[in-house]
Write a structure and sequence with these properties.
Layout (H helix, E strand, L loop, with lengths): L7 E4 L4 H4 L3 E2 L6 H5 L14 H7 L6 H6 L4 E4 L4 E5 L5 E5 L9 E3 L10 H4 L4 E4 L4 E4 L4 E7 L8 E2 L3 E3 L10 E4 L3 E5 L4 E9 L15 H15 L5 H13 L4
Antiparallel strand pairs: 1-8, 2-3, 3-14, 4-5, 4-13, 6-7, 7-12, 9-11, 9-14, 10-12
Length: 251
């Protein structure tokens, strides 16, 4: 890897990098996804044909979701943390750490939750801000998206999406959207969110266009259909490999 491609994490707490460091997202693929078969359950004593596979294919064969699990770096909870949220907005918290390295703070409801659409308020009773001990640095010109742990379906909290100029601003302090009242326990090592670096472009670097379907559109559509429709499976992945060969200077 070239030196300017390096993403760097460090902690304000000595030794934390050996205990619960951020990790590549591919280490946190949810268990239910790992157990999902690509082509459903095979009937006992039955030979499965290619046609059967196509008809029985599950979400596991979707290349877009498989690629998603390979993006970015997961920030994990650095200590056991308990918080109790009451309906009158009173709250209390306790965390297992030898010194006060974390100062959780409940945002007022009119910061975020008050303005949510009605159907979403039932799954957002409080917003909790954490002072994370972790810092992140990306190469010049690269920001980082902050995403929730999509497909993990945590019943207690979510982290809102956002973008940070991590080449200049290095604090990563995720806010937790608490989903229900009562006590919530977040164990050390629990995935909180994922940070995905991306090249930041000027706002005017892309031109927005909506066009009528023309010959160029038909050619692009045909290319896409041919790529996927001329194989029983794996056309998308094959395209990625060919493009990587074209763009990687080491091949």
């Amino acid at each position: 890897m070239q030196k300017d491609n390096k993403v760097t994490f460090w902690s304000t707490i000595k030794g934390l990098e050996e205990l619960v460091p951020p990790e590549p997202a591919k280490k946190h693929i949810p268990e239910w996804w790992k157990k999902t078969p690509p082509y459903g359950e095979k009937l006992e004593g039955e030979e499965v044909t290619i046609k059967d596979k196509i008809e029985r294919s599950t979400v596991k064969v979707c290349p877009a979701i498989n690629d998603w699990f390979l993006q970015g770096y997961v920030l994990r909870m650095w200590c056991d943390f308990h918080v109790e949220i009451k309906e009158d907005e009173a709250w209390s918290s306790n965390f297992a750490f030898p010194e006060n390295y974390m100062s959780p703070y409940i945002e007022q409801s009119n910061t975020y939750i008050k303005w949510l659409p009605k159907q979403h308020k039932k799954n957002a009773v409080a917003m909790l801000r954490l002072d994370s001990p972790w810092r992140m640095k990306t190469p010049a010109g690269y920001s980082s998206y902050q995403f929730p742990m999509q497909y993990h379906f945590n019943p207690d909290f979510d982290v809102p999406a956002g973008a940070i100029w991590t080449d200049e601003y290095h604090m990563i302090n995720p806010q937790l959207i608490i989903k229900h009242y009562g006590e919530i326990k977040i164990e050390r090592g629990t995935p909180l969110c994922v940070y995905v670096p991306y090249k930041r472009e000027p706002n005017d670097s892309f031109q927005y266009e909506i066009k009528r379907r023309d010959e160029e559109c038909e050619i692009l559509e045909g290319k896409t259909l041919l790529m996927s429709g001329s194989k029983f499976g794996g056309g998308y992945k094959e395209m990625q490999k060919e493009k990587e060969k074209e763009t990687c200077p080491y091949n």
